[in-house]
Give the backbone structure.
Amino acid sequence: MKLTIVTTVLLGLLLTPALADDLQGGALSRKISITGGYQILTINKQWHVATIEEKSIHRSSKVVLNYDMGFIGTKVMPEKTCFVSLMDKKEIPSLDELPRLAEENNKLQIQQQAIKELTYIVKRPVRDLKSYGPDIFAMCRGFRTFVATEVHRPDFVGHQSSCVKVDVLQLFDLKYCRANIKS
């Protein structure tokens, strides 16, 4: 009888983490402190999506990295605007690397510049928001949403004052600059 109880308890202890991952769809969530606020990194391994939410005294934003579909969605609250762009997987850390790199940056406990800055030109309004996946659709629904294209020559951007920059875990910045479009 004691052996059955001990075996059941041990089996329960071993299976609980595995079942928890199954029930949560492989979701992982971490809160990362940054100067003046914090960012929350949530990873859904089942859907290959990472979400980074920033809450700070300066700004509130949310970034969805959809590795499966290859899109980045960015919502910037003060502007009440969303941007959608293609993800260059050579420039963005992989889904498996994100938590490790974020944790390493968090352990440094210093305000640092992002490792890289990705610059996008805002081209046109999005016609079919659903085509960018359910996570980006849910985040941007009801907001002005624009397609943005990455540029590799910063001198092409023009007026820097028309740009919005979003920090992502102090690993990289997403910078969205307006071209001459009508909203």
